[in-house]
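Why should sequence recovery work at all? Because a backbone constrains its sequence more than one might expect. Tight turns favour small or flexible residues, buried strands favour hydrophobic ones, and helices have their own preferences. The token representation captures these environments compactly. In the example below, the structure is given first.
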């Protein structure tokens, strides 16, 4: 499953620094507003200790972790929805992603170009209003399009017209689409519009090296906004994370210990992004490879098998399943089976986090 998250924010909030730390892709950095013209793309591996646990018990040539595509999108500015600062192009880049990682500057610095004082609440509002304005244009055009068929009595078009009008009402209040309550049917009908303000958001408070826990007033302003909008937030010092990324494992561990940190912030950030997208992991394990596969929470066995190969979903017969905990307790797959812990699951089985699966596929 290919999933993507777009990093957005005002110019000079630390997006590219964070992107580099996440991906080690070396995105161009610069202390000027449009240092990123085209979006940088890279793959960030999802930190997963289960892979090493599996490798301890199953001899395999390699391990392949799950991953998330990270898109570093150029800094938006007020007026982007009207084309300011190449805004239309940047908004199109956001439209293609599954979720938004909204980076907000929460640190003071005399070396970063910025005329206005640090104001996280205002910065968030600038970006979110631009997304709302862009959606207003999209929805208005959609209403015009479906209204023609609706006037002829077409039931589907009447439904879409009425729904899009409800969406327009929300947007005209200056609200994000995701702030309103929608039925599953309505969400399905809205999906082709790719509305920017309906995408799930993780707010990233980019803090200074004196505020790792995000307790400052600036970071707490981000936390308050996230709570008010039903979203998640996380505090990250992108400069520190970039520095840690350049160290070997021993140096990094020692440095974090000196700072009183237990886990790299990037690990927490990637896992938070994974959770934001409603994803979970299952595993396949054998002599060639141990691999983490990405599925949505609630997916059933055939859907999970289809991630390996599209034909496997239709050909699914059953799955042999055990958990990571079973492997730790019994040591080998053979011992798990002998203990009666190897489960046989059918087409209606809802996959669980940390399942290890062998699928039986027919023609």
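From this structural description, the recovered sequence reads:
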């Amino acid at each position: 499953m290919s999933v993507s998250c777009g990093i957005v924010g005002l110019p000079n909030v630390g997006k590219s620094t964070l992107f580099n730390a996440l991906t080690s892709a070396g995105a161009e950095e610069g202390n000027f507003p449009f240092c990123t013209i085209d979006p940088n793309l890279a793959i960030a591996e999802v930190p997963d200790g289960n892979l090493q646990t599996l490798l301890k018990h199953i001899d395999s040539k390699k391990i392949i972790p799950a991953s998330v595509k990270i898109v570093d999108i150029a800094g938006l500015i007020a007026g982007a929805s009207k084309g300011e600062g190449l805004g239309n192009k940047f908004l199109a880049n956001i439209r293609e992603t599954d979720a938004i990682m909204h980076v907000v500057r929460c640190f003071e610095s005399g070396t970063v170009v910025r005329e206005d004082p640090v104001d996280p609440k205002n910065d968030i509002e600038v970006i979110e209003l631009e997304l709302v304005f862009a959606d207003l244009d999209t929805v208005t055009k959609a209403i015009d399009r479906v209204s023609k068929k609706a006037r002829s009595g077409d039931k589907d078009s009447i439904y879409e017209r009425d729904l899009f009008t409800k969406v327009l009402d929300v947007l005209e209040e200056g609200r994000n689409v995701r702030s309103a309550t929608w039925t599953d049917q309505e969400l399905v009908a809205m999906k082709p519009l790719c509305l920017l303000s309906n995408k799930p958001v993780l707010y990233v408070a980019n803090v200074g090296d004196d505020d790792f826990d995000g307790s400052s007033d600036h970071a707490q302003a981000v936390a308050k906004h996230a709570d008010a909008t039903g979203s998640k937030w996380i505090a990250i010092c992108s400069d520190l994370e970039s520095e840690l990324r350049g160290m070997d494992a021993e140096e990094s561990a020692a440095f974090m210990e000196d700072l009183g940190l237990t886990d790299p912030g990037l690990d927490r950030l990637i896992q938070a992004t994974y959770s934001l997208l409603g994803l979970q992991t299952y595993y396949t394990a054998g002599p060639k490879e141990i691999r983490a596969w990405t599925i949505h929470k609630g997916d059933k066995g055939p859907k999970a098998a289809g991630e390996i190969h599209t034909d496997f979903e239709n050909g699914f017969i059953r799955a042999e399943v055990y958990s990571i905990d079973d492997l730790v307790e019994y040591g080998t797959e053979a011992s798990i089976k002998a203990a009666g812990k190897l489960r046989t699951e059918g087409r209606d089985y809802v996959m669980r986090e940390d399942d290890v699966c062998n699928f039986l596929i027919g023609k």
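A few observations help interpret the result. Residues 120-150 form the longest helix (31 residues).
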